Amino acid sequence: GADDITAGERINLIIWCKGAAYRASRHYLDLQQQRSYAAEAAPPDDICLSYTHDRDFMRYRTAGARHAAMRRTPWVPPRSAEYPGYEEGPCESDGGSDGVG
Q: CA-CA distances (angstroms) from residue 56 to 13, 24, 75, 87?
């Protein structure tokens, strides 16, 4: 997720493409099923942890008040790409509840 901005503005350009031929391709299916996701070599650096995306966020950090309004949908790392010794943190095994409160 992106950090909150305190000054200036953020501009995002999102382009959606939808093509039946591409979505039927092996490349697309591999991406969707995360087959091409490289295995992580080690636990994440603290600066790289994402509250919204990292399954192990709660193992290394504590959710704060700013996270209360955020939706948590963790998926990184995929189970097939967990680093050696990966352990789920609090609230990770219950379907990814937000741990805020």
A: 29, 32, 9, 7
Rounded-to-integer distance, Cα 43 and Cα 10, Å: 30
Tell me the sheet residues that pair with 54: 76
Non-local (6+) Cβ contacts of 69 within 8 A are none
Q: Torsion-angle region of residue 99: left (phi > 0), alpha (psi -120 to 50) or beta? A: left
Read off the pLDDT of residues 40-50 as tens digits, 9 standing for 90 and up. 999 998 888 99
The amino acid that residue 75 corresponds to is W
Looking at residue 77, what DSSP letter applies?
A: S
| pTM reported for the whole predicted model | 0.58
pLDDT tens-digit map of 74-92? 888 888 889 999 987 776 5
